[in-house]
Design a protein that fits this description.
The protein has 140 residues and is α+β, with helices and mostly antiparallel strands. The protein has four helices and five strands. It has a five-stranded antiparallel β-sheet with strand order 4-3-2-1-5. α3 crosses α4. The protein is extended, with a radius of gyration of 20 Å.
């Protein structure tokens, strides 16, 4: 079953990236799915699905915890990728435009483009050229 993603937001911190998707379930209800990728030591991915009904209380709890924390938050990068843009990125990639070229076109990193593609359930192609195997005439 393919997810119907209504909206995606992307956050990046020094050690993790987060994709926050608003998803429409086949039943018609919506939910949030947060995917965290921890970059070190070996790119671990974690998912959490949240019922939007609890969001206001969850936000209050998170703000309270943040206000009581002794750790000063670091600046994070935040992008909002509209669904139309994500569709254009996916369509361009599927007709052969590389993630590097798409990143240049959209003013971001290839990793960000690849995360959007992965979020769209698109398998990434290898950027390595195929190895050539040939044998010279007369050699065995």
């Amino acid at each position: 079953m393919m997810k119907h993603i209504l909206k995606t937001k992307y956050l990046e911190s020094p050690s993790s990236t987060f994709l926050i998707d608003l998803i429409k379930h086949p039943s018609g209800k919506e939910y949030l799915e947060i995917t965290q990728t921890i970059q070190k030591p070996n790119f671990q991915t974690q998912h959490i699905k949240i019922n939007p009904d609890i969001l206001p209380e969850l936000i209050n709890i998170l703000q309270e915890l943040s206000n009581n924390s002794r750790v000063k938050p670091k600046k994070i990068k935040r992008w909002i990728w509209k669904e139309e843009i994500q569709q254009k990125i996916a369509k361009s990639y599927l007709i052969g435009v590389s993630s590097k070229d798409l990143a240049m076109q959209y003013g971001t990193k290839p990793d960000t483009i690849e995360k959007i593609l992965i979020n769209k359930n698109i398998t990434l192609a290898s950027n390595k050229p195929p190895k050539r195997f040939w044998r010279l005439k007369g050699k065995k």
